[in-house]
Fold each of these.
Amino acid sequence: MNIKIIDIVLKPTNNKRLNSLCGPCDDNLKQFEHQLSITISRQNNIFKLQGLSLSVDIAIKTLILLYENTISIHGAINDINPDQVSFAIQYIQALTQQPNYLTNIKNNFISIQMQITLKHRIIKPRTLNQARYIANIFNHDITFGIGPSGTGKTYLAIAIAIDLLERKKNQHIILSRPAIEAGEKLGFLPGDFNQKTDPYIRPLYDALGDVLGYKEMDQLIQKNTIEVIPLAYMRGRTLNNAIVILDESQNTTITQMKMFLTRIGFNSKAIITGDITQVDLPSYQESGLAHAIKILSVIKDISFNFFNKSDSVRHAIVTKIIDAYESCD
């Protein structure tokens, strides 16, 4: 067995942050020891680790990640608990199994992917699949998020879009949905096309408002920095310096999905979310999302991320409802 003994120094020294990292009575360090079968001792900001080489390496990366996540936001230190330690270890273990994530990238890469830092709040993944999804969005120009409702696909995509906008990595956010209603016909709804489609794209406004705040959302929409539009309005456009999110993509046709993906211009990202079990298209039409999974999954530059009921962050009863419907299929 390859046993490794090493000291690491966490900087800058900050007792409040170190206490948050270690937890009450060193509960967080005990979680490291239990989960990775290593030993950890600490003197101030110097940590001595001993154990199998791979386990120690994972512990080092996780300690650095978590210490960075204790950075004060508006004067408050982020508290770390054993559950977060366990999740972070799993996250690092997953990354170490995919070396392309870590090639030629500094340690702080992991921190960037682990959370979404906005002006007024920090958004952290609650499951390993969410963490991978965040990492893949940051590292790919085209990312698919596929799975049941309530798993954070659209919410996290919007949060990352706001983050990139605030850091001036992109200049524009476009949110879109295909104009297909669940069991309803748009033609029977009152009003012009905008009035008919507004209720359907309203969930995108709700997610934006929750992440950004409704006042700032309205200001950015007024400036045309953020657009919320039906998919049909994207035809003929080339979208440069933009984050483009296509929600409910299971309701695109193959032609619509191709149209959307070929709109992406320079310095842009596309995030496509959907649930292939919730297709509202006529039975004779294949879902553009299902078709894209089949023909594009061989392209390494495109990331596909699959969620399941365990990733649900809505009310616990939602998971039970998903189980009930799945058992009938």
Note: DSSP finds twelve helices and eleven strands in the chain.
Amino acid sequence: MSLKQRLILLSSFFFLSQGVASAQNAPLHIVTSIKPLQSLVSAITNGTNPDMTLLIDGAGSPHNYTLKPSQADGLQKADVVFWIGHNFEVFLNKPLHALEKEDVAVAMDQIVAKEEHGHEEHHEDAHHDHDHEDEHDAHADEHHDHEDGDEEEGHHHEGGDPHLWLDPALSIKMSHVIADALAKIDPAHKTTYQENSTKLIQKLTALDAKIQKQLSPVKNVPFVTFHDAYDRFSDHFGINMVASITISPEKAPSAKRLKHIRDVIAKNKVRCVFGEPQFKPKLVQVVIEGTGAQAGTLDPLGMKPKAGQEHYFQMMNNIASALETCLSSSAQGQ
């Protein structure tokens, strides 16, 4: 081999090794669907400097969101996509199915599906054996029999309520799943992901205890929500949600449904009806008119808090404070 050939070979090897090193040092391309999920991912990736993309920000809703062309391109470049699942971010079903890379999408609802199925069976058995107070009997009757025969509204979330993040216990499980998925595709930072996950779980546990204590004095006060998003929150914290105005926020409730909700408000002496900032408050005003019930606001996606590590905690604290404020004033006024 001539000197010239050796130099060409060495030069090729050098540039090839530089390319491999560059690829190895490139940040992970991470896509998350909603701010609460992105918050958990941000906490676990702290210190690793990933390239993070959040799909739904601001006032967007996963119930009627449309991907921007740039976001669709970003999905193709993603190393991992964290989302809740096909029954929640419906707009992602086709784009994720069309991805060239395999096993990129990590769906939270599929991960907890088996455990949730076993939990529901156990909960159902325990529910019939447990002595509930009158308010909780009303909750079971009204909340689980949403429509009283109205076919327009009489469906439930397939696979259970997809708003998993509103239950801190499930957010802890999600944190484990996120850390494991990241460690699998980026083993160089495995220790960091594990350590960050441990710290996050400690914070989630403390948040859970704080909200439990905060809502304990008002747990029996009945309230109504705008849409069927709070099953997991109300079940976990043992509060008395008796109905939701609509099951699907993208679909206007029927006149029969609205009358049913007004009957529920009267029957249960509901004093608080909560709307959401992503949707117009008109329906809330319609159902509370003349009832004496107050209007409040709950935000299950955390529209106002800034995206990032602290977003989840601000969102959950805001929900708890809104409930405590309205339900406390209502309880005192009764």
Note: The chain is about 50% helix and 10% strand.
